[in-house]
Amino acid sequence: MKRQNKTALLAVLLATLSGVPQFSAVAAGQDNTAFEKINIAYQQFTLPNGLTVLVHSDHSVPNIFVGVWYKVGSKNEAAGKTGFAHLFEHLMFQDTIHRKGEYFLPFNKAGAVGMNGTTNLDRTNFYETVPSNALDLALWMESDRMGYLGNSITQQLLDEQRAVVKNEKRQGQLHPGANVYARFLKNFYPKGHPYDHTTIGSMEDLDNASLADVKQWFKDAYGAANAVLVLSGDVDLTTAKDKVTHYFSDVPAGRPLDRIDQWIPELSQVKRDVIYDKVPTVSLNRVWALPNNSAKDTTLMELVSRTLAGNKNTPLYRLLIDEKQLALGVQASVNASDVSSIFSLDISLKPGANIDEVNQLIDTTLKKYFKDGPEEEQLKAINLSGEIELLRSMESNAAIGTRLIEGLTQHNDPLFINQQRQWLSTASPKDVRQVAQRWLDKPYYEVRLLPLPKANAMNGNVDRTKLPAIGKFEGKVTMPPIHQAVLKNGIKLVVAERHNLPLVDISMQFATGSLADQHYAPGVAAQAFSMLAMGTKKYNMSELAKQMDKLGVSISGGAGTQNSGVSWSGLAEHLDDVFALAAEMIRNPTYPQVELDKVITHIDSAYDGYERDPMRASEQVYAKAIWGEQHPFGKIISRAEAKQLSRTTIQRFHDHEIGPNNATLYFVGDIDLKRAKELAERYFGDWQQITPSPLAKIALPQGDVGKIILVDAPGAVQSHISVGHAVAPFDKDSAATQSLMDAALGSGFNSRLNMNLREDKGWAYGFSAGISNAPTGDRVFTASGTVQTDKTAAAMLEIKREISDYVSSRPITADELQRDKDSAIHSIPQGFTNNGAYLGSMINADVYKVPYQRVETATQRLEKVSQAQVEALAKATYKPKELTWVIIGDLSKIEQDIRALHLGPVEVWDIYGHQVR
Fold first, then answer.
1. What is 821-878 written as a DSSP string?
2. Spatial contact of 605 and 591, defined as CB atoms under 8 Å apart
3. How many CB atoms lie within 10 A of CB 728?
4. Using CA atoms, how far apart are residues 746 and 484, in angstroms rounded to an integer?
5. Which phi-psi region, left, alpha or beta, contains residue 519 (left: φ > 0; alpha: ψ -120 to 50)?
């Protein structure tokens, strides 16, 4: 199912750490009042068939995270059987002898969220968060596929999912650097090592997978004794025991899997791999092996990664980016796995930088680090930020359940987190220095990724004949108490009180954005907000980063079209210090020239990548095709225009467009209006008013309707399709109808477009459609996705047919409407489990000019939508005869077939929207 793309050098290999947490314990001497609420309680039991069960009870939100971790991953695959674990992940969502139809449908109807499955080197997992009244459904579904899928797999199902997986593999290969990860596994690990191949496997092995092979894989790997089940949320131990025993006791136990338990790669000398691809800049990556038999060392290496290259105040960042200006980015990461772990260092070089010089500087920095180690203050800052992240994660039953089950499956201790917190909180600079030298002062594997030169069981009594009835749905969203005030200088305050945790989320929103660029220069709004952290009158960029680390806070800005903002969050007890820092950044940025020069360099690098990879142009070319070249939404900014930014222009934008009288300050969390007003007055009360530029009214689209635009991507193994047209502005009265109309056609997993191109045809990994959000002006309906090259023209016909049928011969059915209505209604409460969700809802309410409490009536508005209303709105909205197409692919293979369709006039454009022919 959904999976991270593991292609951008090896940094993607080091995603969210499974064995090393991105949190730590409270530093010695630190006030830990806020962290006393960190208490992850659980209970554990095992069924006679070997199924291990973890239960965490928290009745504050009426939902339950249900997760099943199977201790089987790509490491368990024999030669010639690569990709089996991942292929089987897909098959686990297919029919069983007791259940037919799409796996997600019952869950959608129940209002479940977060349903998915993933596979990695060590394990395969499946999970969902369901309303409390649907626990029986989740347990029935999970136990049914655990116990009975093997006898249900048919040749047709195998062929269908094999095609989906192959398209997923092709889609991953579209991106520059896509083969780096597979090459790393092959060359870093010795032949025969469990990690010497990718999780997705080879095309040859996938093609050779027989029905007998697949059935045997299920029998060997998916027994109850090889699985762990976690229930986290609104459930008690007694209920959990009764229901799990009822549904899982008849599942066969299976047998333990034979495996290699430890094999740490050893290099006698540096091993260097040079790879060329369509990347914009040179990248340098080093990888060292780490032990799997010393969890403490692997844990402490996370401190090494964060103090060596984790932020702007670390030695490699300062040396390579700030002082020598040889790099655009520096990252160090740890990835903990069962058989062996790795430490990775990734450097993205500045164009023209000498890679050998960078290598020498890395060696020099490492030697100094081995001698001096990190500073004590750095470790304290990391500990604080980590504890805040841990505290914040406790708002999520899914996060807690995942933490417990990964602790058990990887370290035989659900609360292994506490051991890691203890190691991290007591680690001294000397400890960190010594562990770094122990594992990094030895030969390593190096990848140089270079741009291509430019050239042309027991007897059960479960009724498996039908799904369990879903209990009565009782979930609802209630907005917290909201209070408002206005300061004398015009700043509007909106405060929502949620006192469950000592956290406050804050956002200062301004009524300005890229629509104001026309008065300055292209991209000025984006840079004015994104560069706020690069220096102020009081602090330079490094000092700002250090202050944020000290407070355990992140303050960031971003610009939209008509609304932009700066957001931060922190512990309630630190709000004075956090507000002082945020106010300094918002009111007094200096936009240092040295940092702007780095931004300009990044712009060059970004355009290099854009020009080497035509697939990146889909959004820009499609926007121009719909809106027209003269429209602000349709203009494709050239490299030269993007680089026209000057410090003076950015500062002028800040001084004229960012001020108190076009600002709203939102608070959500452990705070009341009195405290919020006190903070706002203290840090923003004397801010002088401005006269912002009026934002131009959004003009009507000016693109040519009905054209087919082709962009050449020589050698592409898939084609990217974008198709659609402009639609009417947002209407709050028909918003609920529109959301259900969208869901059936293209925005849901079970939508017609996705089911057709992914499930029925096997031509795409996924295909979706929907109408863009915008508070004013026309919007855009878009259907988009990638399809295999030889099916491009046929896919276009299918897309057009689905849209045409939806407004004529096959309008939405009662079953489709009820399915999507149930899913939408039941999932609404799942989206409101943390401060950030309420903050986003309040901001959107102001942007769309609706009441803050509008979300409380969402259920009623959705329930009232009728089949006739959806059908009428669809006919008024979708225009199958006015579709504009943008197809990016290998024109030598697809152009002739597309022209033969005669769907409209065909033009060939380049990636900047210039007509080639």
1. HHHHHHHTGGG-SSHHHHHHHHHHHHHTT--GGGGGGHHHHHHT--HHHHHHHHHHH-
2. no
3. 13
4. 39
5. alpha
Q: What is the pLDDT of residues 1-31, one digit of tens each?
A: 543 332 222 222 222 223 333 333 333 334 4
Residues 665, 741 within the same domain? no
Residue 472, in any domain of the structure? no
The whole-model pTM stands at: 0.84
- The pair of structure tokens assigned to 770 is 């929907």
Locate 192 and state its tokens.
Answer: 């025969």
Q: How far is CA 66 from CA 203, 246, 298, 732, 825, in A?
A: 33, 16, 29, 35, 20
Report CA torsion sign: 739, 740, 745, 747.
positive
Helix (H) or strand (E) holding 550: helix 541-551
Q: Are 750 and 717 in contact (CB under 8 A)?
A: no
Q: How many domains does the chain have?
A: 4
The CATH number for 389's domain is 3.30.830.10
- Judge if 74 and 215 occupy the same domain: yes
534 belongs to a structural domain:
yes
Q: Which tokens go with 247?
A: 């549904």
275 and 316 assigned to the same domain: yes
Domain of 715 in residue numbering reads as 708-832+850-909
Tokens 């139809």 correspond to 101
| Distances, alpha carbon 194 to alpha carbons 53, 218, 258, 267, 717, in Å | 28, 19, 12, 17, 29
Judge residue 418's burial from the number of C-beta atoms within 10 Å of its C-beta, 0-12 exposed, 13-18 middle, 19 or more buried. middle
> Which residues have CB under 8 Å from 886's CB, separation 6+?
618, 621, 622, 625, 709, 711, 721, 722, 723
CA distances to 89, 162, 844, 857 from 839, in Å: 36, 42, 9, 18
**Residue-wise DSSP of 363-431:** HHHHHHHHHH---HHHHHHHHHHHHHHHHHHTT-HHHHHHHHHHHHHHHS-TTHHHHHHHHHHH--HHH
* Domain closes at, from 248, 279, 299: 248
Buried b (16+ CB within 10 A) or exposed e, 101-123: ebbbbbbbbbbbbbbebbbbbbb
C-beta neighbour count of 401 within 10 angstroms: 27
Alpha-carbon span 301 to 299, nearest angstrom: 5
* pLDDT tens figures, 49-97: 999 999 999 998 999 999 999 999 999 999 999 999 999 999 999 999 9
Separation between Cα atoms, residue 898 and residue 460, nearest integer Å: 56
Within 10 Å of residue 609's Cβ, how many Cβ atoms? 16
Edge-to-edge strand order for the sheet containing 227-233?
43-46, 52-57, 227-233, 63-70, 124-131, 113-119
Helix axis angle for 575-587 and 541-551, nearest 10°, is 160
Average pLDDT over the chain, rounded to whole? 91
pLDDT digits (tens, 9 = 90+) for 103-127: 999 999 999 999 999 999 999 999 9
